[in-house]
Amino acid sequence: MILFSDIIGLVIVFYTWFRLYDNHHMDKRSKLIYAISGLWLATLLVLDQVWQSIFEKSNFTEFDNSALNVITCVIYLMIPLAMAGMLNMPTLKTVLVEKIFGYIFVLIFIAFPLVNIWKPILFYHINGNISYTKTHDVYVALELLIFIIFVRQYYSRNFPFDFSDNAMLAFAQILVIIGVVANIGYKELLVTWNCISLCYLLLLLAIEQMFAKLDSVTKLHNRDAYVKYIFRLKRKADVTVVMFDLNRLKHFNDTYGHSAGDAYLMAFAQTTSNRLKKFGELFRVGGDEFCFVSTTAKAGDLDLSLSKLRKENKCDIEYGDYPVDFAYGIAERESGENVFATIERADENMYCDKDEQRKKRPDEIDSDRSYVR
Known about the structure:
Layout: H1 4-21, H2 28-55, H3 62-88, H4 96-116, E1 123-126, E2 129-132, H5 134-156, H6 163-186, H7 189-212, H8 223-233, E3 240-246, H9 249-256, H10 258-276, E4 280-284, E5 289-294, H11 299-312, E6 326-332, H12 339-360, H13 362-367
Antiparallel strand pairs: 1-2, 3-5, 3-6, 4-5
């Protein structure tokens, strides 16, 4: 009998590979590791079909029992191998202790199905029927817990995911929970394997969605992410906005080339973001324009941090030897005010600051023709 649920799972894995091949944001090593994780899932689904073919044999033998046991053990082995890919993604930054504990748990999850080939500590087969031990349910539940921790530690904490990205990750985790419940409570392994396949696709979609909202130059969230974020803030009472305009970008582009201009943008964006990230989020909303939005900080706190940054007059050295040269304007949302009106006031305050700088050093500011009131 053909298990169409396994075919559906394979189609999901193949589609994920296609999207991975067409992805131009992830580096080659990350794409390879993610593809290999899918290979383990595809192997699982193929072996499940082989298991079904042996199970349906009319002249069932003891050797077939042993074969089914080995195949089931290998199928269970594929899950921790797929999980191991998370630990090897080069884009994920983790402390050494976390990584060591991650590998220890993966090795434990690998060891149990291997031992089960000779000693039934998880399950055993009698005349083709599979029976589960009490250890099996503990093993599967622990595997679910570690998977959820992996996703939290190695995805949402390392990538700049926003609300919608984290929502997609949450749905991926819910699918795995449904698969585990189907396994432990109802022994519906076909549901389990399809849930894992769908989770594999959703994790990639979350990463793709995140990259689509990320500015490739500054590594900040882009204008699309900014607009979505602002619409979610429309009903929030406390919102403080800072509008930035970077000085001398045209000078860097014309004098040193656009690569130097991009490096200058990156240095400014990351330096400013590092100073303000405890208060809220910085977005790149235009060529040399940035917007910072906070729901916790007051204008005075932000003004103090930005004045200190301006006095330093240097970007963080890790991003290169670039000046911190910008105009900014701050506005706090007033009672009953639309958040877009708050942004407009911050923008007007930024232009006032730009005018003040222009009076003090007209040669430098006027030389940057990107400034147009």
